[in-house]
Amino acid sequence: MKTLIIVAHPDLQSSRVNRALAQVVKEQPDTTVHALYEFYGDRPLDVPHEQALLDSHDRIIFQYPLYWYSTPPLLKKWFDEVLTYGYAFGPGGEHLKGKEVGIAISTAGTAASYQPGGYNLFTVREIAKPMEALANYVSGHYLPPFAVHNANQITDEQITEAQAAYVQHLRTISHVQTAGLITINK
Ligand SMILES: Cc1cc2nc3c(=O)[nH]c(=O)nc-3n(C[C@H](O)[C@H](O)[C@H](O)COP(=O)(O)O)c2cc1C
Fold this sequence. Notes:
- By secondary structure, the protein is α/β, with parallel strands linked by helices.
- It is 34% helix and 17% strand.
- Strands 1, 2, 3, 4, 5, 6 and 7 form a 7-stranded parallel beta sheet that branches.
- Strand 6 (146-148), helix 7 (156-172) and strand 7 form a beta-alpha-beta unit.
- The protein is globular and about 45 Å long.
- The structure holds flavin mononucleotide.
């Protein structure tokens, strides 16, 4: 199983959580880390390159900090430009069929805030429904989300725990599993 981690953080150098998560998964076997903002800078997306990367992996994880309950803008642009008719859907658009698709996000909000009754109103799984719908639309298998909460207050020790949990998540997760959200740093 070859895993492609597409990292979308506008400033990975200043990031604590996403940088640490990207670093640790980079060392894992059969894993490619592709950091979009660093790779492209101001250049336009190379769609054939992105599609070839997708073709050569079995599992795609989108890793990003939650921005206004959504993805940073370059990842949205990536969806719009890379997941094209005839490639990801429509006639001949079966390139992602059967691949596992997941998300790994960080949030400033605490785990409690992402529960019903919390100030963010919804769970991460609910908030990330567009990603689940996207996975379904391209005939992929959506994985339970991985989330690191309270990311702006997180200690170095908790980051180390989150790294280990991320590696474990990627090792053991399967779309057949019905478990809900994997939550780090309550
Ligand atoms: C433009 C912007 C929007 C954000 N929106 C949210 C949000 O909707 N929910 C949330 O919990 N945190 C939000 N945050 C906080 C980030 O998710 C948080 O800073 C990030 O996960 C920290 O990860 P890092 O250490 O990798 O940068 C936002 C931050 C920025 C800059």
